[in-house]
Amino acid sequence: MSGGLESTRRLPRIDAAIRAIALNTFREAIRDRVLYLLLVFALILIVVSQLLSLLTVGDEEKIIADMGLSAISIFGVLTAVFIGVSLVFKEIERRTVYTLLANPVRRWQFLLGKFVGLMAVLLMNVVLMSIALSIVLVLRGQPPWDLVPALFLITIELAVVTSFALLFSTLTNPILAAVWTFASYVAGHLAWSLPLLRDKVTGTIGKWVCDAVYAVMPHLHRLDIKADAVHGLPLPDGYVWMAALYGVSYAAVILLLASVAFERKDFNR
Amino acid sequence: MSRGSTTMVLLVAVALALSAVSGTRLERLAGVRVESQELLYLPNGDYLKAASLGQAPFLADVIYLWAIQFYASYEREDRFRYVEHIFGSVIVTLDPHYIDAYWMGAMILSVEAHDIDGALRLLDRGMERNPDNWMLPWIAAWESYHSGRLEDAVHYFDVAANIPGAPDSVRRMKAGLLGKTGDTRKALELWLEIYNDDETDDRSRGIAERQVRRLKHRADIEDLSRIIADFVARTGRRPTSIEELVEAGDLYSLPLDFDGQPYLYDPLTGVANVADGSLFRD
Fold first, then answer.
1. I need a surface site. Which of A125, A142, B17, B267 has the fewest CB within 10 A?
2. Residues A200-230: tens digit of each pLDDT
3. What is the dihedral sign for C-alpha B58, B62, B67, B68?
4. Is B12 inside any structural domain?
5. For residue B248, is it within any domain?
6. B265 phi and psi angles, rounded to 5 deg
7. Which of A73, A190, A231 sits opposite B50 (nearest CB)?
8. Which residue of B has its CA nearest to A192?
9. Is B233 a domain residue?
10. Residue of A56, A186, A189 lying closest to B65 (CB–CB)
11. How many domains does chain B have?
């Protein structure tokens, strides 16, 4: 009974710690002038979309939608990598992590707060850029609704990339962390080649290794439905939700690993 | 101005001049390179797709835009050497649902490069990957028609006509083309099908009615002429009337035209015609 009361009393405090760290991370990212980048992107998108009519023959809206989705995805990944990899490192370097952890804040809460804060920034990026893209498409008489599932899965993909950035941020310096995060992103998009390799490999051990690596690697190519969305192609029932569940659970696993690594980290070394 | 600043300004001026001169020279040198060399090393779409890390449709757009500019330039004489590779192996491999790339590539191949086989190969690939799109077989039909391949054209119109959402005009094209290939009965059957279809719009039904009338008359006269020729060969004389052909068992009954009128027959020439003589007027 008392345990129950204690847990209900503690919950808001846990929430408050994560929320405070998340809010701080969000403000810090905004101070990094991410918004200016977005504004520039939105303007470029609008100007370029008008210029495209001079260059292409056929469906201009297809090119605008492709370009918009790719830009949202690439800008999002770059933001996740370059802000994500320095999140933990900066706190350690400035020694603010000591002050933070001296408070009743657990290390995993600190990490989760950082993750939530950066995801809030990324979500804002995606929403703002999606609005800019939608305005361009609507002005050309093209409803943007078909693109919503692709935008949703781009956000999920960004959650996976952010979780990798945080994991590597707890393990090494920002440059190496950026390299490793980007490598994970590349590997995630090339994961489809492993089953092909498995078919070519002779020998049980080789096949087993391919299967194991394929199971462990993030299947980011499964979260990519941009072409389907742009062409309005139907996806199998429940595909988007299943992909989202996969992405969220994968990010959760990586965050847990990051928490374990962060718990074991000795700040005095 | 200090001496240091003057030196700096001079250095910047020299660098700018060098850059301008070398840039101009470089442009001239670039102009004498083998013209299609830049296309020679463009990798296959499969490799580009793997390297694009999920941005394949965007990459397809970029190459498509570049290809349009490239093929629109009439200064390059050998520009059609890699057109099938660019559109067929690169752009539509990156984005298999890029309908514009199929038809644009096919148009460049057939109209500019005079490679109708290449154009039809590209369109066939598009049909295979986009079986719900009637535009591609429709374009293939026109490309075949313009190159004189009427049977291929009929086949592609048939494919297009059977895809849900294809407009009535596609079936009309097929029926019209069947008439041109000489298969009057088949064309008549198809026009009748269009004429009797409840979903046919009024405009198409009007066109179908005119075609059914014309083709029925033509088909009946063709049959009558053949039967008269058989009669002449068998008896050594022309029949005195169409009724005589019925009595002789060459016809089951007296044939009537679309408006229910009996056909005209001239026993002196042995030529049959419609009641108003319109068949030989059009």
1. B17
2. 888 888 889 988 998 888 989 889 999 899 9
3. positive
4. no
5. yes
6. -145, 130
7. A190
8. B50
9. yes
10. A56
11. 1
Close Cβ partners of A181 (under 8 Å, ≥ 6 residues apart):
A80, A81, A84, A85, A161, A164, A165, A168
B165 part of contact set with chain A, CB < 8 Å: no
The tokens describing A224, both together, are 């990519």
Q: How far apart are CA B133 and CA B101, in angstroms?
A: 14
Q: Is residue B71 part of a domain?
A: no
- Residue in this structure with the two tokens 């990094």, named with its chain if needed: A32
Q: What's the pLDDT score for residue A190?
A: 87
B:70-129 residues touching chain A, CB 8 A cutoff: 95, 97-100, 103-104
Chain-chain contact of A66 with B58 (C-beta, under 8 angstroms): yes
CB atoms within 10 A of CB A232: 10
Query: Degrees (nearest 5) of the Cα angle A219, A220, A226?
Result: 135
Domain limits at B191? 167-282
Q: List the one residue out of A121, A161, A124, A142 whose CA is nearest residue A64.
A: A142
* Chain B hits for A230, Cβ within 8 Å: 57
Q: Between residues A24 and B281, which one has the greater pLDDT?
A: A24
Q: Which tens digits make up the pLDDT trace of B7-35?
A: 888 888 888 888 878 777 766 766 555 44
B281, B217 contact by CB (below 8 A): no
- Is the interface score ipTM higher than 0.90? no
SS3 B272: strand
